[in-house]
Write a structure and sequence with these properties.
- With 483 residues, the protein is α+β, with helices and mostly antiparallel strands.
- It has helices at residues 15-24, 68-76, 98-102, 111-117, 130-146, 163-172, 175-179, 198-221, 233-240, 256-261, 274-282, 288-293, 296-303, 305-315, 344-365, 396-401, 410-424, 454-458; strands at 60-65, 85-89, 92-96, 109-110, 122-125, 150-153, 157-161, 186-187, 225-230, 248-250, 331-341, 368-378, 387-393, 433-444.
- The protein is globular and about 75 Å long.
- The structure holds a DNA duplex (9 and 7 nucleotides).
Length: 483
Amino acid sequence: VEPEPEGGRDEEEDAAPAMERAEAGVAGGSPGARGPEEPGGLPWIHDQVVPAGSSSSRVIVHVDLDCFYAQVEMISNPELKDKPLGVQQKYLVVTCNYEARKLGVKKLMNVRDAKEKCPQLVLVNGEDLTRYREMSYKVTELLEEFSPVVERLGFDENFVDLTELVGKRLQQLQSDELAALTVSGHVYNNQAVNLRDLLHVRLLVGSQIAAEMREAMYVQLGLTGCAGVASNKLLAKLVSGVFKPNQQTVLLPESSQDLIHSLNHIKEIPGIGYKTAKRLEALGISNVRDLQAFSSKILEKELGISVAQRIQKLSFGEDHSPVTPSGPPQSFSEEDSLKKCSSEIEAKNKIEELLASLLNRVCQDGRKPHTVRLIIRRYSSEKHCSRESRQCPIPPHVIQKLGTGNYDVMTPMVDILMKLFRNMVNVKMPFHLTLLSVCFCNLKALNTAKKGTIDYYLTPSLSTTSCSGKRSFKTKDTHMEDF
DNA sequence: TGGGGTTAT
DNA sequence: ATAACCC
């Protein structure tokens, strides 16, 4: 990377990145603000400070594993490694390795279409997510060693806020090391790096940390993946997919408009889903430029102020959402889709099966769920597959038995779930369900609260009298008395 | 479309 | 309890 001659950043920048830089409060935006250069180094960069407490310029990495389920399967059975491999759930190939992709297999392809395209395709069943989930958390834990601020997105993606770590490493850098700083991996658009630009330097350090993360994932877990480094989550995520398997890319601020405009449709912006995309299309908005230019007022009227403002910022590549540490899961669920479930007995058998797996998981976790939910999907001819659910608190005496393999917790839980079932489904009328799911949520840490302590009276499950009817919940549970 | 997850209303 | 979003 050749340092450019004195003069620094040019003035012909797009408005949006310039604004982000202004918000960042980075000193040294104009060349005149910098101190004199010393011979043999670039010490001025240590004087370019991001004021503490400001909503500073961040360094975010998005880590995205390559065809995650297929990788896990190839690790489990190395004989699959050089064969085209698909992971099957029901009649779908939900993901596949790159051998299979070369031969035309796509994600979420019908098994029949996939076999037709690629008769040599090897299929493994991936309906049991246990090993994927376990490997997924190993990845998150590995990333948490770099910085505790890790946000999971699904099983195979993580965001990490590297801002602090980059700051520490910059402080430790000697002037000569700074001058020799290079990027790890690709630079989006092949943009030239300017080592006199603090934002460039910080992102380069981010790219090196990203490379260390990917190396650690490979050495310790045998997994490959992509990484994207940028100043916010949106941009990090978009840029991580630019070079695709097992590569990484850093986005410098001057190229953020190019990246966002490289999208062909607004639906490709993470955060704009199926519904919002349809509503935007109805307004004549189809590409990113349309959304950028559209009247904010009208957009707010159509989508509500919250969604409107958020997605319009996204269209400029702006995303102030923090990397929120995921921590342990908020819920555990097991589901199974079925061709047809039309009797209470069938339903009960399925529910028992789902529940048995869930109880194992809850036991492993250590925390205790205080709410249980039953979810169904009814058959309906080509209507949108919406789900219905009923939930209720788990009675305290059942919660207590949850970690202990001793007592039979199945029986009372099945009783509760079947009451929820009959509350949703009129079993005296014909019915046709295509999905059953059981979810444990409202997880609480083990009850260390002792009688007579403040905790005791603040723990709703322990001080039973305070719980009846006084408190107003946003979500109203179905109580057992309602049956 | 599967078998998961999250947050907002 | 549902609806939107994510993978």
